[in-house]
Amino acid sequence: LFAMKKPLQETGFIRDKDEVPVDSMVGEFATLLENLDAQRIGKVELHGTSWTARNAGTSTLGKGSQAKVIRVEGLTLWIQADPITQEESHVG
Description:
By secondary structure, this protein is of the alpha+beta class.
C-alpha cells in the first residue's frame, strides 16, 4: 500500500493534509504573471503556486493585477476581473 501512495496522490485519490482542495479556490483571487487577453490562456499565481488560467472575461488583464477564480476545470483556473476591484482602480 505504501508503494501506491505516490501514484494515488497523482490521481487525486490521496491528498496531502496541507493541500488546498481545488474546488475551494473558486471565489479567491489570483495574481497575473503576464498580460492575459480575453478568452486566452496564461499563467497566474495562487497560494504560492503557478497555475494555468483562462481569462473568461471580455477585457485584457494586466500583469500583476488580481483576478477572481470563477471556475476550476482540471488544472486550469478560469478567471475574470472582479467588478469591485475594477471600479476602485478607475476611481480618481
